[in-house]
Give the backbone structure.
Amino acid sequence: MVSAKHVNLLLIFFTAITILSLWSLYIYRYAPIIVVVALGLIYIASKKITFDSEKISSTAIGIALLVAVLAAYPFFLNNFVDASADSAAHISSLAIGSTMPETYAPFSNLEYRYQIGFPLLAKLFIDLLPFVSSNFLVWFLGVIFAFLSAVLIYLISKEIFKSEKAGLIGLALFVGSKIVFQNMYWGQYTFMLASVFFLATFLAFYKKSKLAYLFFPMIIVSHPGVAFYSFIFFALWLIFFRDQKRITKLVLSGLFVLPSFFISYIHFLNNLGAEETIAITAEKIVANTIIFPLWVGLLIFIFVLIYLILNVLKVKQFMPSDKDEVRLAGFLLSVFVASFLFYVFFSSSGRIIGGRIIELSMFSGLFISVLVVNKFISSGLKISKFKIQFNHILVLIMLISLFLFFTSGQLDTLRNGSKITPEGVDFAYAFKEFDSSYEKTFFLIPGHGKIAEISQKIPYDVMSSWYLSYDKRIAADDPFYLELIERHEFAEKTREEKCISCLKQIDFYYLVSKEDYFSNELGLKKVFEFREYMVFSK
């Protein structure tokens, strides 16, 4: 049977290979050696650290597997393509070499500034399993992260409230929160990895395990957004629990991934003024407040609201039973409110980090919801003479959560593919089969980012469909950034105007189009055709 120890060992393995890969970039990164050293470190850790041996129930594993299946099934729905996912995480993984990457070469001359944790983790498996599609490996890691997130929600809920029932309620609520699925479908694998380690850090820290100091650096190296909300979380922990010594150790453990500061974070600081913002208005504040419950999960939001109302009314059964519960409830509510305020401020001013901080609202709101459901269960609810059992509540929450999942318009759009059509998928596979080498390609078709990724081609215009991370907040001071924008505008003009003279100025090996209006003038020959798509070469 799976236990908490197995989860921790997997997390330690991910941590070890990522941090070892990071530091090895200064010398020489070689995947087999990194794995061997990581396994040795795990063996040492197993001797030095006391692991929980508590079992994870088969019901919990079943629900966690359901989360993984729900996260995975659009991949099969779209002919084995994560059809709504940005390509940036995948391409950034491929750009990792044996030493510290200076640029995204061969894909772009843009300086490498991507959050490097996930690319290092993914590249290790890509190196070790060259016979498996790199696109599949990147996606499959996302599925593993979805599963681990669910298991960690269960373990945290169970630990905080000392109840298997609480763990299962937490899992059921997590299904209805939808954020994990949204991140999966969007290809936010870097964000998902950081979220897993936020939960792992919180669990270890709560249990006063030294593993917290090992897991916390993984948040920093994986995603700045999660790192930011982690500091909010642990700052409030410090206020409520006065745990200065352990918080200080936690922050200092971030030095394990110091190189990530010079790869990503320093550029965030240098480009603080580069992000386009909008004026905060009352209308924007109201709009973001209204959408907040849908983001965190409608059921979670309702339970938080119920808990607040019942405590304001001083309903005895729902009041904190002792000082520890008062402090815990106060802490979770403070995190929920603080993250809500940060979300509203940043989202109303047009900053993308608002959409990251809202995950902290979901986590804190979920644990508050578990608290209030626990209170309902312990109060011995009855409808007429029928006493409501725990199983009834669990099934009801699961059904509501699944209903919210399947009726979400946004998730439905993402499930069916927002970045590539079924025809585009078929062409991309056929183009890859025709030539699987990474050749420079000019696409005269819109939204070509996913086609370029799947067919293993290097597009002239990498600013399509987030083929690469070209976010102003980290790339605006890059010497190549302005040229990147010029390339994008030039490519758009070429596509819109069918500009023959423009095409003559572009260096490419292949040209992809749905029309043959230029081959005679450019002296190109048609080398491949698939349905309405045509591929030309010089």
About this structure: The first strand starts at residue 382 and ends at 383. The chain has 25 helices and seven strands. Residues 183 and 192 are 7 Å apart (CA to CA). The mean pLDDT is 91.
